Predict the structure.
Amino acid sequence: MSNNHPVSVVAIDGPSASGKSTVSKRVAQELKFTYVDSGSLYRGMTWKALRDGVEIGRPDQVIELMNRMKLEFYTENRVVLFTMDGEDPGQQIRSEPVRENVADIAAIPEVRVFMVDRLREMVRFGDIVMEGRDIGTVVFPESPFKYYLDADPEERARRRSLELKSMEGVDDVGKVLDSLARRDRKDSTRKTAPLQIALGARVINSTSMTIEEVVALITAEVRAALGQ
């Protein structure tokens, strides 16, 4: 990166199943930026804790594990990936035990401080699109490109249900809606970096929008601002 080209960060926040992963990946591809899924770090930490037999309800044990593990980042096809103690958790971070426990891991203040520091370092990979729950509020509050994606709870449950059906053959919208409501509650009420709309963020309700429409809206704004 030359000095006359500061790194651009597109921050995309929102609750579970609001479409932010799909949108963020596509926006990154369109802009030729590097994609960062901040949630994968918290899921990775949860996977590691479960795998190493650490009690999720014991923050001291989780913190000790976090401080001793070796976390390394690399990019592949403009996507940031990581290994923990040399191991790539892969799709295991999408498993149900991880999904059900990640909000508790993410609520530990020391874990958030640690992960926010790591996430801020991602600018070393150049221009990035980063998705999460506190990117515009905490990780990169100075970014001029802040978006908050949302959708009606029923629509989010329907989307997540379709996703789980393709991954695990599970199709229970009611159960998914309950799980999303629990996650929203935990994310919005935690003391450290709760899920909220960043100051100056553009709120996009995607309930009746296609992925393509949301991606086009964001990429057009970013390109216009960057004079592309």
About this structure: The radius of gyration is 17 Å.
